């Protein structure tokens, strides 16, 4: 790869070099697609998987939570490993591990095996995703091609969730739910061959040390919090619930202490100490709770109560994504005119309206009347937030902290999703159990649970709007990056 100051390549060599770079983009984008779509591809398959493996509702939610939690908790460490150990090596190992974990999940004979395999997928995804991003950064170092490459990479990452729902619907309906995991083996083989042929090694130079104690404290703290919320199904005052929630708080406090004292922290505290960036991270976590947590229960309503096929359910969910795609160009043009703060406040409030409308579902209701309008409004609200969000995560960040800021905002999405699934499961269980106790029919009791979940998700969006109003302050010029290359690069992280 040529760099500034190196001799120019011959025309033939230059053409081959350019062609090779675009093939690298194709390989890296494929792996980004796999990592993102695996957050949603099993959602459509869960009703069938639950029935075949005999999973409880609590165990069912861990199929989603295990992936999001491990992925989000290890993302910062995975980026460090890729930078220090070698990005190509980390990419290849991540692909192999992700493929093997997917094979295990696809062949699982119990709910426990499936949950463990999903956690292992999250572990290797946390190694694979930052390695791919680092390789893309090195391959496209500057110029127009870099902007195009990161736009393509970001668009594929952004559309991965919708692809996951559609692909999950097709595979579950026409093959078997297990293929929602086994299909990753094909992607992994293609990526592995492409990586071996095309990629060259790169890594950070100098004295690099891992912040292992920080990683342990972060993983233990987040895991304890999520497990504590899961135990809340049995009661908030139960010793187990209180104990794990308290342990999570203590370990996260220890994480902050460790990060303030080590020379090379996993997460430099200056990244999250900035009020605007901190507000963006909190809003991102709340958005994750809706995108990963609340929409899971919409899938259940569509299939279990409304009787939709897996494919129809996948198509029905995509309405929200279509609105986001259509609205993003207009919101992007609006952003420099009014600034990000009004969008960050209005967006969650609009999304909340959609969720509160969705809470009005009934066992006999139609998709066109009770679900579709809510998804259209929800998609519009989310588009208002998603456009400025990553820009805000970079507000005032130093160039050498840009990678950590980008990793944090993506980790916030996954961690918010895992906590959201746990909390919404408690809400759903309490509401549906109460309806069953009152003698409601099964469909009505389940609908009561889903309705309560959407109310809770709407409240989460109202909280997001309040966070934005209180923490995201400043002029348009203060809040929007002014063209710094590093900032522009990170804005396109999927």
UniProtKB/TrEMBL annotation:
Gene3D superfamilies xref list: MFS general substrate transporter like domains, Multidrug resistance protein D
Localization (cell): Cell membrane
Entry keyword Transmembrane helix: yes
Transmembrane segments: 22-46, 58-78, 90-108, 120-141, 148-175, 181-200, 212-229, 241-258, 278-300, 312-331, 343-362, 374-394, 406-429, 449-472
InterPro entries assigned to the protein according to its UniProt record, in alphabetical order: MFS, MFS_dom, MFS_trans_sf, Sugar_transporter_CS
GO MF annotations in UniProt: transmembrane transporter activity
SUPFAM superfamilies reported in the protein's UniProt record: MFS general substrate transporter (SSF103473)
A Pfam family recorded for this sequence: MFS_1
Ranges for domain Major facilitator superfamily (MFS) profile: 24-476
Top-level taxonomic group: Bacteria
Bilayer disposition of the protein: Multi-pass membrane protein
Entry's Gene Ontology cellular component terms: plasma membrane
Entry keyword set: Cell membrane, Membrane, Transmembrane, Transmembrane helix, Transport
Chief location: membrane
Designated name of the protein: EmrB/QacA subfamily drug resistance transporter
Organism whose genome encodes this protein: Sediminihabitans luteus
């Amino acid at each position: 790869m040529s760099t500034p100051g190196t001799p120019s390549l011959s025309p033939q060599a230059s053409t081959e070099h350019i062609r090779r770079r675009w093939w690298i983009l194709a390989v890296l984008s494929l792996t980004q697609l796999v990592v993102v779509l695996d957050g949603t591809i099993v959602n459509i398959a869960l009703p069938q998987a639950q029935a075949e493996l005999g999973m409880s509702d609590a165990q069912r939610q861990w199929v989603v939570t295990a992936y999001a939690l491990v992925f989000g908790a290890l993302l910062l460490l995975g980026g460090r490993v890729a930078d220090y150990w070698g990005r190509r090596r980390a990419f290849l190992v991540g692909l192999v591990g992700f493929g093997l974990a997917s094979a295990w999940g696809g062949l699982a004979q119990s709910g426990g095996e499936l949950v463990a395999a999903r956690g292992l997928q999250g572990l290797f995804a946390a190694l694979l995703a930052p390695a791919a991003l680092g390789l893309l950064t090195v391959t496209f170092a500057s110029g127009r091609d870099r902007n195009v490459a990161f736009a393509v990479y970001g668009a594929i990452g952004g559309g991965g969730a919708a692809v996951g729902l559609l692909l999950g619907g097709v595979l579950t309906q026409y093959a078997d739910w297990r293929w929602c995991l086994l299909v990753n083996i094909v992607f992994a083989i293609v990526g592995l061959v492409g990586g071996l042929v095309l990629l060259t090694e790169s890594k950070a130079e100098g004295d690099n040390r891992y912040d292992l104690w920080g990683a342990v404290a972060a993983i233990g703290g987040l895991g304890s919090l999520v497990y504590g919320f899961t135990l809340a199904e049995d009661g908030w005052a139960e010793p187990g619930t209180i104990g794990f929630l308290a342990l999570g708080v203590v370990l996260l406090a220890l994480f902050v202490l460790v990060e303030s004292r080590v020379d090379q922290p996993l997460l430099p505290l200056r990244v999250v100490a900035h009020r605007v960036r901190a507000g963006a991270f909190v809003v991102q976590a709340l958005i994750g709770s809706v995108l990963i947590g609340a929409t899971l229960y919409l899938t259940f309503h569509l299939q279990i109560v409304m009787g939709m096929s897996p494919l129809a359910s996948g198509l029905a969910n995509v309405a929200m994504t279509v609105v986001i795609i259509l609205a993003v160009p207009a919101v992007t043009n609006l952003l420099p005119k009014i600034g990000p703060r009004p969008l960050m406040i209005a967006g969650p409030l609009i999304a909340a309206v959609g969720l509160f409308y969705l809470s009005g579902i009934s066992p006999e209701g139609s998709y066109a009347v009770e679900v579709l309008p809510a998804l259209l409004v929800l998609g519009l609200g989310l588009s208002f937030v998603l456009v400025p969000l990553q820009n805000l995560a970079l507000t005032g960040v130093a160039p050498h902290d840009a990678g950590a800021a980008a990793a944090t905002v993506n980790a916030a999405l996954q961690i918010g999703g895992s906590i959201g699934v746990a909390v919404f499961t408690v809400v759903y269980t309490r509401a549906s159990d109460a309806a069953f106790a009152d003698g409601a029919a099964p469909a009505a009791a389940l609908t009561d649970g889903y309705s309560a979940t959407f109310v809770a998700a709407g409240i989460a969006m109202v909280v997001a709007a309040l966070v934005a109003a209180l923490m995201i302050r400043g002029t348009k010029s203060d809040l929007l990056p002014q063209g710094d290359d590093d900032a522009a690069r990170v804005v396109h992280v999927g």
